[in-house]
Write a structure and sequence with these properties.
The chain is α/β, with parallel strands linked by helices and 406 residues long. It has four domains: 157 residues, MoaB/Mog-like domain (Molybdenum Cofactor Biosythetic Enzyme, Chain A), CATH 3.40.980; 52 residues, Molybdopterin biosynthesis moea protein, domain 2 (Alpha-Beta Complex); 86 residues, Molybdopterin biosynthesis moeA protein, domain 3 (Beta Complex), CATH 2.170.190; 73 residues, Beta Barrel (Beta-clip), CATH 2.40.340. Helix content is 17%, strand content 30%. The strands form seven sheets. The protein has a six-stranded mixed β-sheet with strand order 7-4-6-5-9-8, with no helix packed on it. A six-stranded mixed β-sheet has the order 16-13-17-21-20-18, with helices on both faces. Strand 23 and strand 24 form a beta hairpin. Helix 3 runs parallel beside helix 6.
Length: 406
Amino acid sequence: MLPVAEALERILAAFAPLPAEQVGVADALGRVLAEDIASRRTQPPSAVSAMDGYAVRAADVAQPPATLEIIGHAPAGGAYEGAVGPGQCVRIFTGGPVPDGADAIVIQEDTDADPDAGRVTMKVSVPEGHYIRPAGLDFSAGEVCLEAGRALSARDIGLAAAMNVPWLMVRRRPRIAILATGDEVVMPGDPIGPNQIVSSNSLSLAAFITARGGEAVMLGIAPDNREALAAMASGARGADLLVTTGGASVGDHDLVRSVLGEQGFELDFWRIAMRPGKPLLFGRIGATPVLGLPGNPVSTLVCAMIFMLPALDRMLGVAAGDETRRTARLAEPLRENDRRQDYLRALLERDAEGGLRALPFSRQDSSMLSRMARADCLILRPPHAPAAAAGDIVEILPIPGGLVRV
């Protein structure tokens, strides 16, 4: 059986970042930047007031109270074109440009104005620069504020808009075809025979793909029939990856390898030294990579996290790394591990100091989807790991959508 690390390396070697396409900034949420984005303007473009108040010369208010002449107004979106001289000030509002000669802002709460007389008394002294946002405080023209490989959040969309960038070059969404197999599975809501189960794998995989920035192409459920499986698999033409679920083991009805082989499937490897998920295969049909996942729903999701999501990230140009891995203390002891790398489903909780404690479920059966849905993380147990005591540090892999933020 192939070690997990080698299997992942061989899978990732089959993928490269996809071509870029241009989208409007309003449509870029969740898309991955294909190039760095430099600002087209300086923000703020000139020194502006951070508060409503009066633009003054700090020297004029050094000995309060100080009464100054109001010589004009500087609203946001407008400006006072003259200069502030000794004994003068300008009424100013948040975002208003600071007029020449002024070097500080006195907020309106610290003043006593007499608008009819055109004068205002400053009740406090302020230092130079007080409540003034200098030009370029946020960013400057030409400054790279968003880097390639970043999945754009709502905050990033706002930043790009503020940078006056209406169009963005992003990676094309990877198209991942999903084909479930087996006479025993039916889609939710369809009639269920006495020996059938409801299919969950293709829908959970599609959700994973969509949440990660890809496009899921649902090919349906192929029955345990060679002709039907071959016909439905042909729907993956043009996809960036074909993912199958079930039919990758060694049973008489596990037809994926043999049927795809008749269509030119070239096997790279089959069977991984991991639990759950040993019967995993990888290869390609022509230019299309094929990832064959096990049929048990937990095995499917674990293998999708370990292998499919990194491949999707590679296509999106997201930098690879172990940034998703964390550590936690065991809440209870674990036995020594065998030769397969184990991924134990577990809950996370915070201890009194705010650290993470991982509590593995007592039963780890790969058919128990309810436990997987409740889990916050996978506890990674390397091959032949010795017994671990409660309180020992273990490596964890957070599950997307887990309840505890890590």
